Amino acid sequence: MTDLHQALTLRPLREADLPMLHDWLNRPHLVQWWGGEAARPSLAQVLAEYAPAALAQDRVTPYIALLGNTPIGYAQSYVALGSGGGWWEDETDPGVRGIDQSLADPALLGQGLGTRLVRTLVAQLFADPAVTRIQTDPSPDNGRAIRCYEKAGFRAVRVVETPDGPALYMLCERP
């Protein structure tokens, strides 16, 4: 049984983590919100798209969330300005960071770990004085994620159209 009171930390994603991430990204509770069945990634796709060097080119910083020493999830932050592909084309502030994250094990959902993960990521990002605010964009239908973000200090701004479809644009201001 997992001790939920252990420290939750983030460490940089490593190449050796990619097979584990591939497994996670193909779990039904993640597939539902990360592109659906048609977007299930192959191992080759994960190795190519999530390799730290490939993500760095897109100004994405990937992390593995640890509960104690146990990997429990994936998180990433990115520079919103100039992210390309139709994403955040109206953004003019170079200090805005976007975030995404997920817990790997569905048995860990609903226990406050997602909120702890978001708070940990937000605190780490705001430790950099260049970061002005943090945004996220859950599906408007993903009530669990929306509640998690609200508990972590985000506020809903509006529904926006993204390359992945409608999303609830949410912001967290620097404390």
Strand content: 25-35%
Overall form: globular
Assembly status: single chain
What would you call the structural class? alpha+beta
Tell me roughly what share of residues is in helical segments: 25-40%
Query: The biggest beta sheet, please?
Result: 7 strands, mixed
Radius of gyration: 15 Å
Write down how many β-strands occur, each being a DSSP E stretch of 2 or more residues.
Answer: 7
State mean pLDDT (0 to 100 scale). 89
How many helices? 6
Q: Provide the spatial order of strands within the biggest beta sheet.
A: 1-2-3-4-5-7-6
Low-pLDDT stretches: none
H/E element string?
EHHHHEEEHEHEE
Span between termini: 35 Å
Write the layout of secondary structure elements.
Layout: E1 8-12, H1 18-25, H2 28-31, H3 43-49, H4 52-57, E2 60-67, E3 70-79, E4 96-103, H5 113-126, E5 133-136, H6 143-151, E6 155-162, E7 165-173
Parallel strand pairs: 4-5
Antiparallel strand pairs: 1-2, 2-3, 3-4, 5-7, 6-7
